[in-house]
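ugh ok fine here u go
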Amino acid sequence: MLILAVESSCDETAVSLVEDGRKLICDKILSQTDHAIYGGVVPEIASRRHIEAVGGLADLALEGIDKSKIDAVAATYAPGLIGAVLVGLNFAKSAAYSLGVPFIPVHHMRGHIAANYLAFPELEPPFAALVVSGGHSLIVDVRGYTDMEVIGTTRDDAAGECFDKVARVLGLGYPGGAALDALSKTGDDKKYPLPRAHAGDSPFDTSFSGLKTAVINLIHNSRQKGEELDEASLAASFAAAVSDALVPRAVEATKMLGYKKLAVCGGVAANSRIRSDLTRLCDGNGIEIFAPPLKLCGDNGAMIASQAYYEYMAGKRGGLDCNAYATMAINNG
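structure:
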């Protein structure tokens, strides 16, 4: 089954073709650069850039493809920047209508989990998933391809948002996750003691607002006093604090669920410290770790097409009146 999928939930426009949920045919992505001068994504600019890009990307993705072989069209419909999501959603609905094939709406977080199906053909539910992106930090019980439940989430800021804001204050630009990761590799992760929050009523929930504030205040205070700041060690200490919040909780959740498989996904899954800590702790607990290649960690159309296959097999269809949603629980997706 060949599925054409569109992703436009934030600042990447992506169009992809995937066969049977596992075989990647093509994945065309255009990352917007307009937002760097603002230090974050400007929703109105993102929406306009999606409008400009999506048609050309679709032409590139379909180059040499017999359109009569496309069995369905999918798109992200939640969650995300509402104007941005609407662009890809309406383009995909129009494409499905013109091709005379079903339209499949896909939850963005389910798509991130499905990125692992493209990288690991042997991976099948049930398993636990750590979903960490710019807007979400979730631990998910993946009981089936379309049966999922969140058992841990952030109480405030997402891990990816904190990476970007700390990188911006350090002058590393936006998006700053990769630059912060590179900087941290030459630093001492124990030089700056940073807070680790714990939610007493929910052992798998996280909180990053206090950590973010502590790091930003440390940077500002150092600069105001004219003190030398070891930026590499601060980056390393920050990455260690984020990893300490995510990794042990994900492994403990996997053990609590009785699973031997843990998948990590989302843009923050590209962070080298989190990957290495997950690998080490999973190995020590007899848990198999699945982490997709870096190109499948960020937003892409392939993950949406992959999840769309399983949504289709479960009977999910979207009409031409299907709307976009800025927020939506993963179990309602």
